[in-house]
Design a protein that fits this description.
GO terms for molecular function: transferase activity. The protein has 12 helices and 14 strands. By secondary structure, the protein is an alpha+beta fold.
């Protein structure tokens, strides 16, 4: 198995088909790398910022990882390529074929070293458990490979406990569950108070509606998102309605997931008024909230918190799901509290090559030891020079043939 670099702008229609097949076989779902989500960004202003390492064999893809120029560690100052934190660009862990996850990860790592001239590859937001973690442990034991964990994060998560009372497709309207047992007593009291005041103001009960098949639901969402500060660019608003191309791409992504039956749109209604809406995309059997919005005039009732609470209660009872991944680390403390469970993700640095595989375990000491930082910088510099010399020698041999 070999791997190569690929930019978003250069992905061909045939490659999108291979990519989608890989996403369908992936050991762990990743919305950020799903072609139904990603392909619509092709041709945009920022497409040159998308750089991927693709592992393949014959005409079949086995792994994809998006990489960015960065430093191996903030304190070290060694330039390299790796992945950013999940909250910045969506989930960052690679797509790996479940049947050959370790082989694909190894091929990606070795190609990153060969093509990007770095033996230290940071992988931020990497699952600490499950098939990807197993693949990493296997790769660590292979020749001239090792890895070290440099940080750990508890990420918001929802473990789904399927309830037979919620069969797929029926019904489409539910009483809003706004009293979750996993929240504190004070929070539950606050939620009940806000729900009561909102129902009194609207002159009707709060209900959650599944609007996945309602074509007008996306229009309502776009209008609702623009109703508050998100619709004001001077306040840093990011509503999709602020940019014509951005709204078009958003709608294209939604329709791609609707076409495959993997779109969930849930709305919180107070009597005859829609006060909250969320767009959830399903990859494999994991739901990944994409965007949500609340009607701005109901902000004093914590409409956003009420909506997310009702949505979580609903999603964790859907038979088609095994989990909900909101992509929120616990340093977004208040947002993370809305979700009942946690999953551990780690920041890991892969050492690839003779020198980096031996030096990578020294990285945690670089934060506190100037002497160790100097040693590691020297080793990294020497390793890059060695790779350049080796590349030049191979090019000369190729010209001589």
């Amino acid at each position: 198995m070999r791997a190569r670099l690929l930019r978003l702008a250069d992905v061909t229609p045939a490659e999108w088909v291979r990519w989608q097949a890989l996403s369908d076989r992936a050991a762990e779902a990743n919305l950020a790398f799903d072609p139904r989500f990603l392909s619509h960004d092709q041709g945009g202003d920022g497409e040159d910022e998308y750089l991927f390492v693709v592992a393949e064999e014959d005409d079949r893809w086995f792994g994809v990882l998006r990489v960015f120029a960065m430093e191996a560690l903030p304190s070290l100052g060694v330039p390299t390529y790796g992945t950013w934190d999940p909250p910045l660009f969506g989930a960052s862990h690679p797509l790996l074929d479940r049947s050959r996850a370790a082989d694909a990860l190894e091929a990606i790592a070795r190609a990153a070293r060969r093509e990007l001239r770095s033996g230290f590859i940071p992988l931020r937001g990497y699952p600490a458990s499950g098939p990807l973690a197993d693949a990493l442990q296997t790769v660590r034991r292979r020749r001239t490979m090792d890895a070290v964990v440099v940080a750990s994060h508890a990420a918001a998560w929802v473990d789904v406990t399927a309830d037979a009372s919620l069969p797929p497709g029926e019904p489409r309207e539910f009483p809003a569950d706004l009293d979750p047992v996993y929240r504190s007593t004070n929070t539950r009291r606050m939620l009940r108070r806000h729900a009561r005041r909102l129902a009194e103001t609207a002159h009707g009960p709060l209900v959650l509606r599944d609007a996945s098949d309602d074509l007008a639901a996306i229009d309502r969402f776009v209008q609702m998102q623009a109703s508050g500060w998100k619709g004001d660019s001077e306040q840093g608003g990011t509503a999709v309605a602020l940019d014509a191309r951005g709204e078009r791409v958003f709608r294209e992504k939604i329709e791609a997931f609707r076409a495959s039956g993997d779109l969930i749109v849930l709305e919180l209604w107070a009597a005859t008024t829609c006060v909250y809406s969320t767009v959830v995309l399903v990859v494999g059997n994991v739901a990944m909230p994409f965007l949500d919005a609340y009607q701005h005039e109901f902000r004093d009732f914590s409409a956003g918190t009420l909506g997310r609470t009702a949505v979580n209660a609903h999603l964790r009872r859907l038979q088609r799901l095994v989990a909900v991944n909101p992509g929120i680390y616990d340093y977004y403390d208040e947002a993370a509290k809305t979700y009942p469970d946690r999953r551990e993700f780690v920041d890991v640095v892969l050492g690839v090559g003779v020198v980096p595989s031996r030096a990578v375990r020294l990285l945690p000491r670089a934060d506190t030891s100037p002497r160790m930082r100097g040693l590691l910088r020297g080793l990294a510099r020497g390793d890059r020079l060695g790779m350049r010399a080796l590349g030049a020698a191979r090019r000369r041999l190729g010209q001589d043939r």
